[in-house]
Amino acid sequence: MRFARLLVCLLFLPQSLFALPQVRQAEDPYQRARELVRAGNLHEALQELQKALQHTPRNPKVHNMLGVVLTELSRLKEANEAYDRALSIARDFRPARKNRAVNAFTQGDFKFAASEFEDLARLEPKDFVPHLFLGLLAMEGSDLTTARRHLLEARQLSPDNGRVLLALTRVHFALGERQLAIESAQAMRANSPSTDAERFELGVILAQFAANAEAAEVFHELWLKKPGAYDTGFNLALVYYRTGQLEPALRIVKELGSGAKPSGELLNLQGWIYNKMRRLDQARESLQQATAAEPDNPDHYLDLSTVLNNQGETEAAIQVLSGAIQRGLEKTRLQVQMGLLYEKSGKYAEAEKCYRVALTSNKATPPAYLALAHLLLGTDRRKEALDLLAHATRSFPSDPLLHYMYGAELLESTQESNSEQWGKAESVLRKALELNPFYANTLYMLGRLYVKRGDDDSAQDYFERACAFNPRHADAYYQWLRIAVRRGEKSKAAELDKIVRKLHDEEKRQDQETVTGLVEESLRGPVKGTLVTKAAN
After folding, report:
1. Is this model's pTM higher than 0.90 or not?
2. Rounded to whole angstroms, how far apart are CA atoms 441 and 232?
3. Helix 348-360 to helix 366-378 angle, to the nearest 10 degrees?
4. Whether the Cβ atoms of residue 377 and residue 408 lie closer than 8 Å to each other
């Protein structure tokens, strides 16, 4: 679970995290280097520091500053050597020790970094940096509760620090504390003197956890500051698409594609926008252009086939997939999609043939197992489906969707109290949750399990977490509503009833964009098509 990786590139700002000792104003090479570092003129600073070392070779401050500059230049091995020299001269020179620990974190030496930051937190209790990195280290180890504790301590010491608020936003989301996460994000936007890069990352985190309205506000502000920036514009168009703001989304996509030949991903997004606008011919044309722009990207063929099928042109969709297979693209994924199209049109024998061909290939993948299991369940062959899923989880022990589907079907396969079957289902679902702690459907099914056991307290906890990770999970809200009714919590029940009704109304208005939701997720990831929120470069 590599939460902290998005943050690392933002942490190495000399004026904020690196330990720069305070010195008197003086016209000497060291002081000039220090000023050059703050101005971002790193190569000139390096030259000044080399001059300074000629005059004062045993000054730990100079060696430490040299390490800072070398780190900024991505020369980490040399930087660590500079920090080591500073510490060999002055063993208790903490700025060098702190900076060396930061580098250890960056290089993945988490054991050494943790040891150093724990000691530094004790030695410098008023410094937020050790607690920030101890929080990031805990995130690396999936210990989110410990991460939250350290990050809250870091925030207490530095309330408006953008890097702290960024990490805290992510860890609150990861713990299912959605409102606290959004409050951290709002504090960062309102009070923090954060950089544009940090705000971009904030938008990415918000979008990743489906806080799309808040993400749109962040990306919109960045877009106004730098119109035409591709990554910002793409993400803004994407979150506009997700929130149903289709005209603004299309306008930004057109602007991004006006200067040069549009990329395949941009044309793909444009196609989905047109599809949701019911401008179906233009949706098809955009996705065809995406395949022409990136003919070796199977995602575009998968998406084009989905849009064609949604228009009732199943044969044309199958021809698109056949053409992609003939090009030598990922046959297994395309074969599964072809089977999905046959299945939707009621041609179950053809669908099953496609799935089994995919499974017998050298590159059998989880989507093939998921699709065939779905078909077997739909044609009253539950035992065969369960046996297939059991085999699939052994073949792909790290795939969370396979474990989720197997656990869910084990749970649904018995209507009466069966502690042995329920225990097996729970074990598989907990494995799915371990593999992907953020998948709302797994949390929902664990909630259903506890409802069956008559444990409403535990069930509600899982339903609440499912809603936190997917605020559009109508079934989870409905089960939570039923618990509130059983408890006689009239006010809460009324609140949840409004949410459920709103979500159901929205579902009725939405266009169908996928064939089978679970299999689509496995085919392309949790976001439809190639519409993946872009991370900072």
Report:
1. no
2. 30
3. 150
4. no
